[in-house]
């Protein structure tokens, strides 16, 4: 780390997916100087390029009913969505869609009658996303409005002074520089907790921010025998029918994330589960072909429905996964400010809880990220204009520099690849993150605490690439601890959080959000009640409030 | 879809694949000016390098799982 460079700006945006792009562009439109950094390449990195299915748009001209949409999210999310945020995402969705169209994003029309949205996800209107997806148009627009983009910069920690976030510390992956960013306001858009790493959440946690809603699992199924694990995934989205090993048909066409259906079947010993392509009509095959060719034109549809009994499905993706667009850093207002002055968050690391305990339908991820990105960008620019940045705390800079470089300065230690794999092997099995029980969660937590206390402080990097892996592993361990502790804390089942030892919803106790924060060196958890006006009518019988039954209820 | 090989005869050194890889698997070789697979073990099988290569110089294997890391 021979060369140290200091960059000063009004707004620093960390992460260059769709949330980062909207943040940076909006902050720039407010007149702020903006730097946007990404550990990969802005526009191609993170979760955004993977989001190939849909974009949620509420447009009353299409006959969509706003209240019906919000109520549907509340029912599916089982009454733990923040309805103010749910409404904000619907309300802002059309303008963000129009922005993306203006920036050159591709939204193919796939319906024979010319309707721009999928017919399958009533009452929502979800626009199919084509390729190129939404990442590169955001990058081009950011460049056009004068955002300074810095690719391949690994941010390792947020920088604080006087109780405020005043920037971040990181390094160049491909060069020699150590980078210190000093910013009037910082927007964290480095989420991606739904699948793997959660850099943003971990950095905010270490900086003392409050976080929330880490207990709901992401249960999007992946086709285990499709090359790359993702080929055919776009087509798969429009034909969600399966068959278990006993030949029993499973029609999941009215769900999106499968509500743990596969995990329950696997737990009963009914794996493997197959994609039931044999049940597809010629019309279904044509819909799948169109969807696949819109989303992945380089990877055309080539599946013979007769293969139906051969394509095995996996359950939810691996990783620390939390139901996306719900858990993350607690926003204290509708401008996505965190509990720490100077720190704003957007995208998957912003804990809006707008889908509650269940990722309602495709397209909610991209749209939620664009909406929170827009709001956080404006909020951060305003904050930077209205508040003087405190002086840099040199001792804190020195401390963070030591943490940044320590894995590469060690003579030896643990490989980050090995440590990440040990973590995933411990946490990702279905009996840990999906079908939960206090005894197993405690076992997982014991392993995570060991990794946290013994392995992470001894991670060893032979070069800057491995240094990046070390810092990601450090963040993944924090994310895993949040998921396990929040899951242990919520002693009931609800939406995509299932406790075998507490298989019923417990409304009087648990119409609440789980919050957490680092206090005195440990992770402290507590409840934040859902406002009473958003509760279901408790005079109605339980079975009417919650039509879906959990095993063991 | 794991990255298997970059054909040095076909590669023109445009570095598009370096930007497409979010895992930093591909780097540019300073001497030859061509793209080289540098951290193959970190490939997450997204296939974006092969998709974006304008010269079709990148070959992806049909492997569907990343190899496990067994030693510390």
Verbal overview:
The complex is a heterodimer of chains A (553) and B (72). Chain A is built from 16 helices and 20 strands. With 553 residues, chain A is an alpha/beta fold. In chain A, strands 1, 2, 5, 6, 7, 8 and 16 form a seven-stranded mixed sheet that branches. A five-stranded antiparallel sheet of chain A has the order 10-14-13-11-12. In chain A, strands 15-9-19-20 form a four-stranded antiparallel sheet, covered by helices on one side. Chain A has helices at residues 18-29, 66-76, 83-102, 135-145, 199-206, 233-237, 261-267, 282-295, 364-386, 394-409, 416-427, 430-433, 438-455, 464-489, 507-510, 542-545; strands at residues 3-14, 34-37, 54-56, 126-128, 148-150, 153-161, 164-172, 177-188, 211-212, 221-223, 241-243, 249-251, 273-275, 312-316, 328-329, 343-345, 435-436, 498-499, 512-519, 522-529. With 72 residues, chain B is of the alpha+beta class. Chain B contains two helices and four strands. In chain B, the strands form two sheets. In chain B, strands 1-4 form a two-stranded antiparallel sheet. In chain B, strand 2 (26-28) and strand 3 (35-37) form a beta hairpin. Chain B is globular and about 35 Å long. The A-B interface holds A 40-41, 44-46, 49-50, 151-152, 173-174, 224-231, 298-299, 414-415, 417-419, 421, 465, 468-469 and B 1, 18-22, 24, 27, 38-39, 41-42, 45-48, 50-51, 60, 62-64, 68-72.
């Amino acid at each position: 780390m021979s060369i140290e460079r200091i960059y000063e700006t009004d707004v620093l945006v960390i992460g260059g997916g769709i949330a980062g792009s909207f943040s940076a562009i909006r902050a720039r439109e407010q007149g702020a100087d903006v730097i946007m950094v990404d550990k990969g390449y802005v526009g191609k990195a993170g979760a955004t390029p993977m989001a190939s299915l849909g974009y949620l748009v509420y447009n009353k001209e299409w006959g969509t009913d706003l209240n019906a949409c919000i109520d549907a999210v509340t029912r599916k999310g089982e009454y733990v969505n923040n309805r103010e945020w749910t409404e904000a995402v619907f309300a802002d969705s059309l303008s963000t869609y129009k922005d993306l169209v203006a920036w050159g994003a591709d939204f193919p029309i796939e319906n024979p009658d010319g309707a721009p949205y999928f017919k399958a996800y009533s009452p929502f209107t979800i626009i199919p996303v084509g390729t190129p997806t939404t990442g590169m148009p955001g990058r081009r627009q950011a460049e056009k409005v004068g955002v300074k983009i810095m690719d391949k910069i690994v941010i390792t920690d947020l920088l604080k002074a006087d109780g405020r976030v005043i920037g971040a510390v990181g390094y160049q992956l491909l060069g020699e520089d150590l980078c210190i960013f000093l910013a009037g306001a910082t927007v964290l858009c480095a989420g991606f907790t739904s699948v793997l790493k959660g850099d943003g959440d971990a950095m905010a946690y270490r900086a003392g921010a409050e976080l929330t809603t880490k207990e709901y699992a992401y249960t999007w199924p992946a086709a285990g025998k499709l090359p790359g694990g993702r080929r055919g995934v776009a087509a798969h989205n429009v034909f969600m029918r399966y068959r278990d090993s006993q030949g029993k048909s499973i029609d999941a066409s009215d769900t999106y994330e499968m509500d743990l259906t596969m995990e329950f079947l696997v737990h009963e010993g009914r794996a493997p589960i197959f994609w039931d392509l044999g049940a597809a009509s010629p019309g279904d095959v044509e819909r799948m072909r169109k969807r696949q060719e819109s989303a992945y034109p380089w990877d055309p549809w080539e599946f013979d429905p007769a293969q139906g009994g051969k394509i095995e499905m996996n359950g939810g993706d691996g990783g620390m996964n939390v139901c996306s667009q719900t858990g993350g850093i607690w926003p204290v207002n509708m401008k996505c400010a965190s509990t720490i002055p100077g720190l704003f968050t957007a995208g998957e690391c912003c804990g809006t809880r707008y889908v509650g305990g269940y990722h309602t339908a495709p397209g909610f991820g991209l749209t939620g990220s664009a909406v929170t990105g827009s709001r956080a960008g404006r909020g951060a620019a305003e904050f930077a204009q209205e508040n003087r940045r405190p002086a840099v705390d040199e001792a804190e800079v020195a401390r963070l520099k030591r943490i940044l470089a320590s894995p590469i300065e060690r003579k030896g230690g643990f490989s980050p690849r090995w440590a990440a794999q040990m973590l995933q092997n411990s946490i990702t099995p279905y009996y840990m993150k999906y079908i939960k029980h206090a005894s197993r969660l405690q076992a997982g937590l014991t392993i995570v605490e060991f990794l946290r206390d013994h392995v992470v402080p001894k991670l060893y990097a032979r070069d800057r690439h491995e240094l990046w892996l070390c810092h990601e592993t450090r963040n993944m361990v924090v994310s895993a601890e949040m998921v396990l502790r929040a899951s242990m804390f919520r002693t009931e089942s609800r939406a995509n959080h299932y406790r075998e030892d507490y298989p019923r919803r417990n409304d009087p106790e648990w119409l609440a959000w789980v919050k957490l924060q680092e206090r005195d060196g440990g992770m402290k958890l507590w409840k934040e009640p859902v406002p009473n006006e958003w509760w279901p009518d408790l005079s109605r019988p339980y079975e009417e409030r919650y039509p879906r039954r959990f095993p063991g209820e | 879809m794991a990255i298997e090989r970059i054909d040095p005869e076909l590669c023109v050194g445009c570095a598009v694949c370096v930007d497409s890889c979010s895992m930093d698997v591909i780097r540019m070789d300073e001497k030859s000016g061509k793209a080289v697979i540098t951290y193959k073990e970190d490939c997450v099988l997204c296939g974006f390098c092969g998709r974006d290569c304008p010269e079709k110089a990148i070959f992806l294997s049909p492997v569907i799982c990343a190899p496990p890391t067994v030693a510390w």
